[in-house]
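::Amino acid chain::
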Amino acid sequence: LLFAAWAPGLHVSGGHAVAIPELGGLHDIIYALPFPDWSRLFDQAVWGVAVTLALIASVETLLSVGAADKLDPLRRITPADRELRAQGVGNIASGLLGGLPLTAVIVRTSANIDAGARTRLSAILHGLLLLASILMLAPVLNYIPLAALAAVLLVMGVKLVDLRVLRGYLARGPAQWVPYVVTLLAILLTDLLVGVLIGVGVGIFFVVRTNFHSAIIVTREGDHVMIRFAKDVSFVNKAALMQAFEDIPEGAHVLIDGTRAQFIDDDIAEELREFVDTAPSRGVTVSLRRSVASLNPYFMEQEHPA
C-alpha cells in the first residue's frame, strides 16, 4: 500500500499478487464454482489428463506421507492405503465442485507439526481456517505478492533438507544420489509433475539394474560351480545366464540352486533345459535343487540328480 502511494514503480499488482474473488454471500459462492462440463465425460484427452494427475498425485502423496512420518515426534506410521482412498474420494468431490486435485503437501504438513499438531483435527481446522479466510479476508489476502508465497515455500523447503540425509545418499553410491539429483534438477527445469515422473523413471531404472545384477549368482571352487537364483529370474537375465553356462569348463560339476527363486521365466527355463541336455557332451554333470523343478513343467517331467 505504501508503494502504491509513494513509489508506484515498486507496487506489485495484477498477475503478481494473490487474486481471490470477493464473495459477498452464499449466492456468490455458488456461482463462483465452475461445475463440470458433462459433455466431456468420454473425451479421451480428459481421461488422459485425469489418469496422469491421479498417478502423479498418488506418488506425491506417498512421498509426503513418508516425510511426515519422519517428522512426527511420536514416530507413528500413516496407513498409505487409507490415505490414498481418502484422496480419491476428496478428488472426486473437489472435481464435482470445480476444484483442483488434492494431494498431501509436505509444506502444510510440516507447518502443522511445527505448530504442535498431534491429531487429524489439525488438518480439519487448517481447512476450515483456509475456507474462512477465503470467505471473509479475500480483500486482505489479495494484497499478498506471489513472490512472498514463493519465499515461504523456499524457506520451508530449505528447513526440510537434512544435510545428513544428503551425505548418506552420496555415501551409498550412484543408485541413491543420481535419482535424487535428477529429480531435483528436473523439477527446477520443468515443473513438479514432470520432475517427479522423470525422477520415478530414473529410480525404476536403477531398481531394474540392481535386480538384473543380483538375480543370478555364480560361485566357483575348482571344478565345482554353483549357479544360484537369488530372486525372480526373467528374460532380462537370459544373457547373464547364457554367459555363465559358456564359462563352465569341461568336466565340471554344476549345481543349479533355485530354492530362493519365486518365479522363473519360460525363456530361462528353456536355457536350463538346453544346458541340461547338452551338458553330458561336455563331460559336465548337473544337479538341480528341487525348487527349480517345481517352478517349470519341464523339470517336473524329468529326473536329475539332486
Q: What stands out?
A: The first strand starts at residue 216 and ends at 221.
